[in-house]
Amino acid sequence: MDRRKSIQTIILGAGASALAFHGCKTDGEKTVNEDIPATDDTKYFGRRPVELERIEKLNAEQLFNDHEMETIAVLSTVILPPKEPHGGPIEADVPEFIEFMGKDIPEMQNTLLGGLMWMDHKSNTEFGIEFKSATLEQQKQICDEICFHDPEIPLNRQPLEIQFFALMRNLTVSGYYTSKVGIADLGYKGNSPNVWDGVPQDVLDQHGVAYDPEWIAKCVDQSKRNEIAEWDENGKLLT
Fold it and tell me: Domain residues of the chain, as ranges?
């Protein structure tokens, strides 16, 4: 799961722009941060050694057993059903994301572990079967009982199961929509180069405004898009 490639793209783009202004370097100038090891791994791009050490430590730990991970996987798909063509929480490695966050923020652990136990207890009591093996309708019935809470009562004073579902819902949605799969589902492509030809005419008409023909000729002439603007000593635009 790679949630930092977009950051890499932004940094690389900024670096390319900077070359236009810093094409020459003085002798002896330090150009490489030796504290950040060179790597072709973009998964943890730009992380400092202390951060990489912590990530490695957390990845080596285990918070949930296999049964709990399977339950998280099932619950995450109930919260956010998969859809074509990009898939859902499983394809976005959301269960692994949730476990990592639980290890990274220990304050979450009691709520997550206790909530998973509650889900199985509730499912066994109501339907005689573990939550992960219940039918979708049975799973939804359980979730419907805990997915809303009284806004007048702070969440940390709500019953455990209410706190658990709120946390799981937040982690599921956050994990999915910060993944490559989730971003593709949104259709978000980030900043892209294009040709700006002014505010659309229908929008101008809606607000009863219009461009000054002299300015539109100067500012929205695509044949001159690579020319640098020049002003006279009085601030009048010359180009």
Answer: 60-186, 193-239
